[in-house]
Amino acid sequence: MYMETNSRVDLGELAVILGTDEADVANEIARMEKEGIICGYHTLIDWDKTGEERVNALIEVRVTPQREKGFDKTAERICNFPEVTAVYLISGGYDLLVTLEGKTLQEVARFVSGRLSPIEDVISTTTHFIMKKYKEHGTLMRTKNKTERMPVTP
C-alpha cells in the first residue's frame, strides 16, 4: 500500500520499512512489474494550475453483452481510443463507466456521438463533465485558502 500512494519512494527507505535490504526490494519490484502486479507509474497533475485547457468526462455506457464474451469485446474496443483514460465494468443501470479526456466540451461530445455511440453493441450513453476535482488517486487537489483577515477581539 505504501508504494501505491508514494511510487517515488527511495528503495533504501522502502527496504528499511520492510526490514530487508535494497537488492531484495529491487528484485521484488522487478518481479511484480514482470508479472503485471505493478501495472505502471503515474504523475498526478493539477491541470487547472498549468493554464492548459483540459476537459474530463465520465461516460456511462449501456451495452448489449455478447454471447460467451459478455462486455469484454466492447470494453476492449473502447479501451483502444487514445482519449479514453479508463474503462470499468460497473453495477447498476449502466454496464461500463468510461473516463475520457479532451481539450473542449465539444471535442468530448464529438467523441461520444461520433465514435462511442455508433459502436454496434452500445445501447445508450450518458455523459457527465467533471467541473472541479477535489481529490484524485487519494490526493487532495486543492488546499484550503488561508484567510487573510485578522481575528477581531473585543
From TrEMBL:
InterPro entries: Dimeric_a/b-barrel (IPR011008), Tscrpt_reg_AsnC-like (IPR019888), Tscrpt_reg_AsnC/Lrp_C (IPR019887), WH-like_DNA-bd_sf (IPR036388), WH_DNA-bd_sf (IPR036390). GO terms for cellular component: cytosol. GO terms for molecular function: sequence-specific DNA binding. SUPFAM superfamilies: Dimeric alpha+beta barrel, Winged helix' DNA-binding domain. Residues 59-132 form the Transcription regulator AsnC/Lrp ligand binding domain. Pfam families: AsnC_trans_reg (PF01037). GO terms for biological process: response to amino acid. This is Transcription regulator AsnC/Lrp ligand binding domain-containing protein. It comes from Clostridium scindens (strain ATCC 35704 / DSM 5676 / VPI 13733 / 19). The lineage of its organism: Bacteria, Bacillati, Bacillota, Clostridia, Lachnospirales.
